[in-house]
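Our working data are protein records whose layout never changes between entries. Instead of coordinates, the fold is spelled out as a row of discrete tokens. Here is such a record, shown just as it appears in the course material:
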Amino acid sequence: MNESLAYGAPGVAPRDRTHTLFGQTMGYVAVTTGFFALGAYLGRNLSEGWAFVWFIVAFACLIGMNFAVRRSTGLSVVLLLVVGTALGLAMAPLLTYYAATNPQALWQAGGATALFIAGFGAAGYATRRDLSRLARLCFWALIALIIFGIVLIFVHIPHGSLIYSVLGLVIFAGLVMFDFQRLRRTKNIEAAPLLAASIFLDALNVFLFFLRIFARGNN
């Protein structure tokens, strides 16, 4: 009896911490998504010029989170919510445009994003194989995709937008799996805001790629 307690107790605590971290992280993701929606609503009449300003604000807050999380979890959570609101304000002109011209694409992209994150997130959370190498590959692939996106601005490539979006989804499938594996392996509960920021950004990018695809298909 004592032997079973001795071997059982250490196993319970890590599982409890993992479940607590998962719940807290996904709770932060949900709240951040709510603040994103609030920002998009408040910024529905903003000009496109303001989008750049709010992107800078969001980027600055993301950098600040990396320093704040070591000193104050509360401050990192506040910065996370500012990130969500700022990105909502930055994306407001685009979302308003689609809401007025192609609302079906918004709903389709939202549903597809939920299924995408749930599917690849579950796969990443469950896998035992170390996905660090995949994450590094996806990072460099993402850099290449950004360069490809810049090329598309100046050079017409047949079906270039579709290719760009599909490649983006492939890359973020790997990143989503890696982030959810980090969520399972991380033991530090204070890392929840940073993990939530990463997963939220994954979901936002996936949503934008799906939006390009569905908007193209509905035209």
